[in-house]
Amino acid sequence: MKTLTAPAVLARFGKALADQTRASVLMRLKDGPAYSGELAELIGVSRQVLSNHLACLRDCGLVVAEPEGRRVRYELSDARLAHALEDLLSAILTVEPVGSCDVAEYAP
């Protein structure tokens, strides 16, 4: 198994947060486990769209899927992620906006 460097780990976390749907999933899961159907409804996306985003979050190592009979329960892979998300959000909210920070503007 390959050991990731700190910048690689942060880039992986950044990729997960770079999409509003994935960020919404993470913010919902910080409050506890949920099933895909209820996540899709709460976030306002189709189950297919949500499935693609959940796959990305699983690939990033931030979310795990736990089969429960015919349903699958999703939760954060580590409880510390809930605290990290809260801390990150509170830190960002205290920063005064200085620019548009349009991601597309900085893409190679």
The name of the CATH architecture is Orthogonal Bundle
Low-confidence stretches: none
Per the CATH scheme, the topology name is: Arc Repressor Mutant, subunit A
In total, the number of domains comes to 1
Give the percentage of residues in beta strands: 5-15%
| End-to-end C-alpha gap | 30 Å
Residues in helix, %: 55-70%
The coarse silhouette is globular
Q: What's the rounded overall pLDDT mean?
A: 88
CA radius of gyration: 15 Å
Helix/strand order, N-terminal first: HHEHHEEHH
The named CATH superfamily: Winged helix-like DNA-binding domain superfamily/Winged helix DNA-binding domain
- Write down how many β-strands occur, each being a DSSP E stretch of 2 or more residues: 3
Number of contiguous helices: 6
Organism: Sinomonas terricola
InterPro entries: ArsR-like_HTH, HTH_ArsR_DNA-bd_dom, HTH_Metal-responsive_Reg, WH-like_DNA-bd_sf, WH_DNA-bd_sf
Protein name: Metalloregulator ArsR/SmtB family transcription factor
Features:
Arc Repressor Mutant, subunit A; 108 residues; 3-stranded antiparallel sheet; 13% strand
Task: Summarize the helices and strands and which ones pair or pack.
Layout: H1 6-17, H2 20-29, E1 34-35, H3 36-43, H4 47-59, E2 63-68, E3 71-76, H5 80-94, H6 103-106
Antiparallel strand pairs: 1-3, 2-3
Helix pairs in contact: 3-4
Briefly characterize the structure.
By secondary structure, the chain is of the alpha+beta class. The protein has six helices and three strands.
